[in-house]
Design brief:
33% helix, 9 helices, Phosphoenolpyruvate Carboxykinase, domain 3, globular, alpha+beta, four-stranded mixed β-sheet, five-stranded antiparallel β-sheet, 370 residues
Length: 370
């Protein structure tokens, strides 16, 4: 049976419209444009092709929407920055400000740093019995960024000059300054002219520091004396050993040297030795070409420790009982109240010359009988 061509042409547009309106929203057929052309020729509405195209593009846009969203969120240039980064960046600025330390950092007496300082002090005693005669109540570390940088720079320069490891070794020295000058020394450093000693060199061209932590002044400490001692970190560098000078003939520093020591320092074996304080001093200086620097860089304040001199048990007796170097009641020998050295006494026959108090009290009965 032959088919009517006109009837077949009318059924094709219906099938094409049905394919464009697929309920599953699948991909439209590739020949959609070819099917729409005959429909226009057979009297189908002219806007049919325009109506089908948006419906064909809608499923494709829905399929590509998740891909575009993923690409948009994963782009580092267009994506928003995490919200926690801004608070973290703002929090680092005050943290750095809080980490900045002042000139002093006070240490607790039960801290490990405090114990380390006490160990340093005890290792620099001339007399081992000083462990029981000195007590330390508080300590503070000195943080001076400028002086520390200059100390490191000086060490680097000395190393470039070919100095030995022994010359670059760091050690400690001590100073018992006036209380009014303590803060200035820790803030500005130890400048020349602070001392009046002339044993090793001109005090206006160098600085003097004590070698021993229990020998801080010329005269021995009295019982109950207290104060603040400054610990210095030093490098002796190239040492020159010389004899002590007379006060009128103060020597000038020697070029290419960094420190002067006395040749008689090894003879000092006691705190009560003759000129013990002066002979154990260390003289530091620094040359800048042909001139002397106002502050040697290889001397840097390290810590400040408060101390009190307790004294030995024998020294705890009242000083008035020894003011006249009295003779002990048991025998013929007495002790000097300042040196503790036994002094020989002069004998008359079998007796001992009495002291002033004995003469006064012995004369009282004679006045009463008269």
């Amino acid at each position: 049976m032959a088919l009517n061509p006109s009837a077949a042409g009318r059924r094709d547009p219906d099938r094409a419209g049905a394919a464009g309106r697929h309920p599953d929203g699948g991909e439209p057929q590739k020949n959609s444009a070819a099917t729409s052309a005959p429909a226009n020729q057979n009297g189908v509405q002219a806007g049919c092709g325009d109506v089908v195209m948006p419906e064909q593009e809608a499923p494709e846009r829905r399929r590509n929407a998740p891909t575009d969203a993923r690409s948009f969120s994963g782009s580092p240039s267009t994506g928003p920055r995490p919200s926690e980064e801004l608070p973290r960046r703002n929090f680092q600025i005050p943290r750095k400000a809080r980490e900045r330390k002042g000139l002093y950092n006070f240490l607790r007496p039960d801290s490990r740093e405090f114990e380390d300082l006490v160990k340093i002090l005890s290792s620099f005693y001339l007399d081992s019995s000083s462990r029981s005669t000195f007590s330390y109540s508080k300590a503070r570390m000195v943080y001076n960024e400028l002086l520390e940088k200059e100390f490191i720079e000086k060490r680097r320069e000395m190393k470039q000059e070919g100095r030995t490891e022994q010359e670059l070794t760091e050690s400690y020295c001590f100073l018992f300054p006036d209380k009014a000058k303590l803060h200035w020394i820790c803030e500005k450093g130890l400048a020349v002219g602070h001392s009046k000693i002339t044993t090793l060199g001109n005090p206006s061209m160098g600085v003097y520091l004590s070698k021993y932590s229990d020998l801080l002044q010329i005269n021995p400490f009295e019982v109950g004396s207290s104060g603040d001692m400054v610990l210095f970190k030093v490098m002796r560098g190239r040492i020159k050993h010389n004899h002590e000078n007379m006060p009128k003939n103060a020597m000038e520093p020697t070029p290419k040297f960094d420190c002067n020591l006395s040749k008689s320092a090894n003879r000092v074996t006691s705190l009560l030795s003759y000129r013990a304080f002066e002979l154990t001093q260390q003289y530091f200086y620094e040359f800048a070409f042909d001139e002397i620097k106002a502050r040697p860089r290889h001397v840097c304040p390290y810590a400040v420790v408060s101390f009190k001199y307790i004294g030995k048990e024998a020294a705890a007796t009242p000083m008035t009982a020894h003011r006249f170097n009295t003779i002990s009641p048991e025998g013929s020998k007495g002790k000097n109240c300042y040196t503790g050295v036994e002094r020989p006494t002069t004998e008359q026959g079998s007796g001992v010359i009495p002291n002033l108090f004995t003469i006064v009290f012995a004369a009282l009965p004679s006045f009463q009988t008269a």
